[in-house]
Amino acid sequence: EVLLVESGGGQVQPGGSLRLSCAASGFTFDLYAMSWVRQAPGKELEWVSSITQDGDSTFYKQSVKGRFTISRDNAENMLYLQMNSLKIEDTAVYYCAMNVGTAGTRGQGTQVTVSS
């Protein structure tokens, strides 16, 4: 059974940082590109970032480029998202997901709230 468990969300002030983690199990992690997607209140699910199987290539939504960094540890079956210079518009539930885009299997999500 595929299991993706996100953690690390919370409430921070604008300009703050958070590091999200995703523990993966139930599949061969290093055979899959992985992504972070998010859903803000009242909005559709949107893609944020992806990373290739070997971690050598990363891709970002334009609005988070330069602020967010995706990474993975294939030895530990972990996916990460370092989020710096957070903005109010980054407030959302963040999910890790298999493959690229928003259609893949994803976890239960972790809430990120950016407010002053």
Strand order, biggest sheet? 2-10-9-4-5-6
What is the string of helix and strand elements?
Answer: EEEEEEEEEE
Beta content: over 45%
Q: Biggest β-sheet, characterized?
A: 6 strands, mixed
- Oligomeric state of the chains present here: single chain
User: How many β-strand stretches?
Assistant: 10
Specify the number of helices.
0
Q: Span between N and C termini?
A: 40 Å
Query: What structural class results from the helix and strand content?
Result: mainly beta
Gyration radius (Cα, Å) is: 13 Å
- Shape, please? globular
> Helical percent range?
under 10%
Mean pLDDT: 97
**Poorly predicted tracts of residues:** none
Jot down its keywords:
mainly beta; six-stranded mixed beta sheet
How are the SSEs ordered, and which strands pair?
Elements: E1 3-7, E2 10-12, E3 18-25, E4 34-39, E5 46-51, E6 58-60, E7 68-73, E8 78-83, E9 92-98, E10 110-114
Parallel strand pairs: 2-10
Antiparallel strand pairs: 1-3, 3-8, 4-5, 4-9, 5-6, 7-8, 9-10
Describe the structure.
There is one protein chain. The chain is mostly beta strands and 116 residues long. Helix content is 0%, strand content 47%. The chain has strands spanning 3-7, 10-12, 18-25, 34-39, 46-51, 58-60, 68-73, 78-83, 92-98, 110-114. It has a six-stranded mixed sheet, with no helix packed on it. A hairpin with a 6-residue loop joins β4 and β5 (46-51).
